[in-house]
Amino acid sequence: MNLQFFVILLYCFTSLSASIIIDNNDYEINKFKLPYFYDETRSLKIDQIEKFDFDQKTNNQFTFGYLKGNLWFRFDITNNSNKDEIILHMTEPFFDEVNLFELIQNRWYKHQSGLHIDLNLRDMYDISAVFVLKIKPGTTKRYYVQTYAKFAQFGEFKIYTNRAFVTNYRLFINSLYIFFFGSLFMVIIFNLFLYIRLKEKIYLYYVSYIFFHTIFVIGFSGLTIYCGLSNLHYKIHLISIPFLIIFLILFETVQNFVSTSNSS
């Protein structure tokens, strides 16, 4: 009898702890656990997925490496605030697919995001996956998020109680990119000037390395989505990475040769 009571109590506790609770004082929730399921075949539909137990858990900051299949995350969100709108944000923009499934009147609706989904067709105009969740105060609602990426699957889910926080986050990240690319541009110009004046190939190799490194970061950051070039995402990586490595090796080789010559 006592054992049965303990099992029931443990079940209730784990079910409650699996829910993400939103209060009036919460503006950003960035630390929580998520049940997940891995579909290696990429063939399972939401009607099948909802029947699984999701007995494995991960942090909202997750790293799964290179996977051939789909990852499914389950969100049980309890809204104890006085707001009926919650924002779910996936910070990384390079996923091919980030789809949220919502049950409305016994029917699953899919909200699409990912590299190849037009910005105007998303819940919010953002290169990352952002979903607007409608949850009535005092209720709990369940969502499923399916992700797929040709590269490694890693990222972070965050929950906000105001759309402005997502906008501010994107402005902050874009400001960092502007500073980063501006710095690289100045490095390129300076080293091109040195190459023109000194005719030393080491400066040309360094400029080429910085240039292809910049192209790689543009592709990896998802900024190509703003330009409508998401179809070139993988081509940018295939072109930039080999040349980046080649010119880095050339630069290091010449630099080591010059250092050896000067020391002797």
UniProtKB/TrEMBL annotation:
Keywords, in A-Z order: Membrane, Signal, Transmembrane, Transmembrane helix
Superkingdom of this protein's organism: Bacteria
Domain 7TM-DISM receptor extracellular: 36-148, 175-251
Signal sequence extent: 1-18
Gene3D superfamilies: 2.60.40.2380
Keyword Transmembrane: yes
Entries under Pfam families matching the protein: 7TMR-DISM_7TM (PF07695), 7TMR-DISMED2 (PF07696)
Parts of the chain that traverse the membrane: 176-196, 203-226, 232-251
Name used for this protein in its record: 7TM diverse intracellular signalling
Organism: Hydrogenimonas thermophila
